[in-house]
Design a protein that fits this description.
Elements lengths: L4 E4 L4 H9 L5 E3 L6 E3 L5 E7 H9 L2 H9 L6 E7 L2 H9 L4 H22 L3 E5 L2 H15 L18 H10 L6 H11 L2 H5 L3 H8 L1 H11 L5
Parallel strand pairs: 1-2, 4-5, 5-6
Antiparallel strand pairs: 1-3, 3-4
Helix pairs in contact: 1-6, 4-5, 10-11
Length: about 220
């Protein structure tokens, strides 16, 4: 098995020990987003969270920034890997008091969040029990995506397979923060790339919100050095 696996330098030693134990080759690098990258056909980026970090990242809203970061891996399959069970969190936080209420609260929050991720993000959610399971799954992903001679950086759709509408949608979607719904909203309003370029900042903010509207306006007027 080749070293098509890249592991974030901040992953704990216990995970690396499992990779070493199974003689899985990997490279270590500092990744801006995601914990693992598997190069193959298709390439895959994986965000790993143990169940306690999953809930902590909900508390501080960190998970949404991390999921948005995964979108930067264009053409990659995205995976959120949750390690552990919601019952571990319930057991730790209930301390034998008011357990019924805690069960309802945490299970509802857990499944609602996963449902929201499935609905709004192009991310596959997988749950495993242990670190050993995580390593076993990743090793299989490495094996499967490298099982033929296809290029490491796959093209999911050939350019000449797109019609003009799809090309325009792809151009608008290349701007960070614009997903399918937002690009549809923009193009329904401005009708064309020319119309989008000619929109003023106030109209973009009204349509997309202040932060994204300003970002789009800035990108459309950015001069390449």
């Amino acid at each position: 098995m080749g070293s098509s696996l890249i592991v974030d330098s901040r992953e704990p030693q216990r995970v690396l020990n499992e990779f070493n134990k199974k003689k899985i080759q990997y490279k270590i690098d500092t990744l801006n987003f995601g914990d693992y990258i598997v190069l193959g056909n298709p390439s895959v980026v994986i965000e790993r969270k143990n169940i306690f970090d999953f809930f902590n990242s909900l508390d501080d809203n960190r998970i949404w920034k991390q999921l948005r970061g995964l979108e930067k891996y264009v053409g990659y399959r995205k995976v959120l890997l949750i390690e552990g069970s919601v019952w571990q969190v319930i057991t730790q936080r209930s301390k034998g008091k008011g357990k019924a209420g805690i069960i309802n609260r945490y299970t509802s929050r857990y499944y609602s969040t996963i449902a929201l991720i499935v609905k709004q993000w192009d991310v596959t959610v997988i749950r495993v029990d242990t670190v050993g399971d995580t390593v076993a799954l990743i090793s299989k992903i490495v094996e499967k995506v490298n099982s033929d001679d296809s290029p490491a950086y796959p093209i999911l759709i050939k350019k000449d397979d797109r019609d003009e509408n799809e090309e325009v949608m792809d151009m608008v979607g290349a701007i960070d923060g614009i997903g399918m719904k937002k690009r549809t909203t923009l193009l329904n309003d401005c009708k064309s790339i020319e119309g989008l370029v000619n929109m003023n900042e106030a109209d973009l903010i009204k349509l997309m919100g202040e932060k994204l509207g300003k970002h789009i306006f800035s990108i459309l007027r950015y001069k390449v050095i």
